[in-house]
């Protein structure tokens, strides 16, 4: 790992807005509330990210990624994310990579859509005076991005995680631990089960502003070298968010923890939560 340190901080009061977690990827066990809808959108840029199965390395832009969370009940959310345009400015190619020949982009750039992810989050145990809140989340990544672009896995993954969250005075600490079954790009009949993890915390610095941070990623537990395309990846992220009325704006910088991760990058976005319907 390249950047072994993490600064994390952050907030979240015990209200439906606590589920507004951007720019963090670590999932809070709190849900958004029955009949509420959360809409979010963001852009990101990642410098020197590597796709070893295709032999491509470059700077990735996501313009934008969109997400919708729907509060199906007081304890359950439906979550969907995806995006129309990912653009990779190619800085180097490795023609000996196992899937280099399937990439149709011959110039210094390539593009594709962002894979759609569909999942659900369930709050299992409410937070108590000494007890953390506990939740469970499962999700599937669909193979929307093509191999021909050189930036899509073209495989389907399924994962599940336990979620933990506890507010200690003005600090919100959240942890995730679970697994993802990743189909191997070179052999779709085989998979690599990887450990997924996340740890974040946040602190309010004013009534509307927060500093946030996390370490989040996946770790291959395969004995020996991980199958290509399922290697360990992780990010260290530090940023902030600012609430103006019903909208929360956010921004963060991040650093890669492994050689295939981006060296540095940034993300910025906004989140809006509203009452959409009443359950019978």
* CATH homologous superfamily descriptor: Autotransporter beta-domain
Mean pLDDT figure: 91
Helical content stands at under 10%
Tell how many strands the DSSP assignment holds: 12
Radius of gyration computed on alpha carbons: 19 Å
Count of the domains = 1
Strand/helix succession: EEEEEEEEEEEE
CATH level 3 topology: Lipocalin
Strand line-up across the major sheet: 1-2-3-4-5-6-7-8-9-10-11-12
Percent range for β-strand residues:
over 45%
* CATH class term: Mainly Beta
Structural class: mainly beta
Number of helices: 0
How are the secondary structure elements laid out?
Layout: E1 36-51, E2 56-73, E3 76-93, E4 109-125, E5 133-141, E6 157-168, E7 171-184, E8 187-204, E9 209-220, E10 233-244, E11 247-256, E12 264-275
Antiparallel strand pairs: 1-2, 1-12, 2-3, 3-4, 4-5, 5-6, 6-7, 7-8, 8-9, 9-10, 10-11, 11-12
């Amino acid at each position: 790992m390249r950047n072994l340190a993490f600064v994390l901080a952050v907030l979240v009061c015990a209200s439906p807005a606590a589920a507004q977690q951007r720019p963090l990827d670590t999932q809070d066990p709190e849900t958004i509330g029955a009949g509420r809808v959360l809409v979010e959108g963001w852009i990101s840029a990642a410098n020197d990210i590597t796709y070893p199965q295709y032999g491509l390395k470059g700077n990735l832009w996501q313009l934008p990624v969109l997400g919708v969370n729907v509060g199906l009940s007081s304890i359950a959310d439906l979550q969907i994310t995806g995006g129309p345009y990912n653009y990779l400015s190619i800085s180097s190619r490795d023609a000996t990579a196992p899937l280099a020949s399937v990439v149709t982009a011959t110039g210094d750039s390539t593009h594709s859509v962002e894979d759609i992810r569909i999942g659900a989050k369930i709050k299992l145990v409410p937070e108590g005076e000494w007890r953390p809140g506990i939740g469970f989340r499962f999700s599937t990544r669909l193979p929307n991005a093509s191999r021909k672009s050189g930036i899509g896995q073209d495989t389907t993954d399924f994962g599940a995680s336990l979620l933990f969250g506890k507010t200690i005075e003005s600090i919100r600490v959240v942890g995730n631990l679970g697994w993802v079954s990743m189909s191997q790009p070179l052999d779709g009949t085989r998979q690599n089960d990887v450990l997924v993890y996340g740890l974040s915390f946040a602190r309010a610095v004013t009534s509307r502003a927060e500093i946030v941070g996390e370490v989040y990623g996946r770790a291959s537990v395969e004995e020996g070298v991980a199958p290509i395309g399922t290697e360990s990846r992780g990010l260290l992220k530090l940023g902030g968010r600012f609430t103006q009325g019903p909208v929360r704006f956010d921004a963060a910088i991040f650093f890669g923890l492994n050689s295939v991760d981006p060296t540095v990058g940034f993300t910025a976005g906004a989140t809006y939560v509203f009452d959409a319907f009443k359950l019978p």
